[in-house]
Amino acid sequence: MITISNLVKRFGEKVAVNIDSYVVNAGEMIGLVGNNGAGKTTLFRLILDLLKADNGNVCIDETDVSKSEDWKRKVGAFIDESFLIDYLTPEEYFYFIGKIYGLSKQEVDERLKPFEQLMSGEILGQKKYIRSFSMGNKQKIGIISAMINHPEILILDEPFNFLDPTSQTVIKHVLKKYHEEHQAIVIISSHNLNHTVDICPRIALMEHGLIIRDLNNENNSAEKELEDYFDARIEEEQPEMEKADVVLEEKVEEITEEVTESE
């Protein structure tokens, strides 16, 4: 279980996260959605104790993540490529992660087998360092490394980023199967509403650091509400966007006239 209480994180005057109370129960699969700057990645970093909260706390099974490291063996996460050790090959990196969790090379090899379709022959045996792989393959390496230890809690930030459509579909199946087989907490953030709604029975909608809606998504029931919300936001922002376009056009005309007069 993950329990968030009175959690606040500020960057200067900007409040990036402000969550009074939120509970993720054992075995839940949750999609975290919201526009850029909503606070999704900051929330993940607070849960993983990669950022210090200004107020409140996050507890994993009643352990405050900022006061103990006992919870870390239960958690697998991939936020971005900074999590990777890019001067290793994928094999070296997977074995390194496995060693941290007391896994032998044989055990790591066995745990890589379910990811063969995702790797599609492009990850293992390439004889090159992680830094030389494409962004899509780095993403795959990061996701796989987060899952090797069979974590009770899996946290992935934008797992569909940089992946081609086939790989996105494979990732959906991999995550859903993992959740079902291990009864793990799985939390993903994504801008892709379709993928998120397809696999997550619970959706948390973030805006300006707040979780403004906590939606039950049985049988994709949250899809319409989410689409309506984001459509409404576009309509609200449209006048400001049009105003900005007018100002930009006027500025361009002004500069053009100045250049013409100077000639």
Question: Would you kindly provide a written description of the structure presented here, covering whatever features stand out?
Answer:
This protein has 263 residues and is an alpha/beta fold. 41% of the residues lie in helices and 23% in strands. The chain has eight helices and ten strands. The chain has a six-stranded mixed sheet, sandwiched between helices.
Largest sheet entry: 6 strands, mixed
Q: Termini distance?
A: 70 Å
- Number of alpha- plus pi-helical segments: 8
Per DSSP, what share of the residues sits in E-state strands of 2 or more residues? 15-25%
Average pLDDT confidence is 91
In which range does the helix fraction lie? 40-55%
Number of β-strand runs: 10
The best one-word shape is: globular
**N-to-C SSE series?**
EEEHEEEHHHHEHEHEEH
With strands numbered from the N-terminus, the spatial order across the biggest sheet is 6-7-8-3-9-10
**Poorly predicted tracts of residues:** none
Q: What does the oligomeric state look like here?
A: single chain
Task: Kindly summarize this structure in a few lines.
The chain has 263 residues and is α/β, with parallel strands linked by helices. 41% of the residues lie in helices and 23% in strands. The chain is globular, with a radius of gyration of 22 Å.
